[in-house]
Amino acid sequence: MQSWGKAPAPSVIIDLSPIVLLRGNPNWGWVEAAVEVWRKQHDPQARFYGVADNSLYYKLDEAGKRGLSQWKRKRMARSVSWADPEVLELATQFDTASVLTTDLFRDHRRDFPWLQGTDRIWKPVVGDGTLGFERLDYAPIPAMEVSWRIEEADLTPKGFKTREARDALKYEWRCTTSSCHWASEAVIEEDPAIRDGRVVCPACSAPASRLGFRESTKEIVLLLGDDEVDRLPVPERSELTVGRGRDIGRYDVREVLEDAAANKVSRDHLKLINNGGRIFVEELGSKNGTNIVRDDGVAAQLQECVQQALAPNEHLTLAGGALTIRLSGKKRPRGTYEPDLTTPPFLRVEGN
Ligand SMILES: [Zn+2]
Fold first, then answer.
1. What architecture (CATH level 2) is domain 217-327?
2. Which H or E run includes 17?
């Protein structure tokens, strides 16, 4: 499936989460600094494109949230459940682009063989308060180690040792602690945690509530015209309302649309419902309506307050075409269930 729209090809792809977390505390300033320094040291004309994990938004302060939102509005960034494969797919498509990250992507080397021995990947380094770049050492690693890394990455998160705990990973989970940032989203999009045999929210450690089967989760793709900007999971038996306003189970178009376009979207504009693993859409009586565009390109206005199924080859347009919504052709990623990949398995001490 084509993942690139009409935006100009990037020459530098940024894995946003590790750059923001460069020194531990989340700081969007590292992204801006990386852009500035790269332009000075490598290419004044560089065109940057960032990929964020959905969880990054909640780690950012207000200025950082505005920064990310600006990048999205300018079609310079997208946010997805799991950034790693997205970064690497874009880097495969734009095969002369450099990549800024801190990750060695050892568990991805079979799917992206060009990683072995590549000199395209750079890591920002901070010394004396100034930022610079170092080439990451992508010396080829043996096939056997690649296999280990893949196996390791497929392992369940720490603490998920019993069968009951592992079964928990077949489901989606939600946090209901009002003060927790994950409570404002329909799904916890980070590695789950387990405590005393119970699944808990990784952010606030309160018991998480179980949603539907992960397998039945559908991903919704939001695009500005043809350019993808957000991808969000909608678990079974849950809903996503698209409109103006940020709240639980809502997608706030103001994050990505300029004011003029956002104002064409009603507060409660459109609802997407996952019913048994199928997505149904319902126009909520918005002022400017929603169009559904069929496979043959014929557009029709969605009827108010009627739920109808959205097929994979159909899409919706809002705000005079400024915002497009379609289903993702991809399976819900297995998640970010990544153990620490920095230590090879033969050196790892159990319980460490
Ligand atoms: Zn929580």
1. Sandwich (2.60)
2. helix 16-20
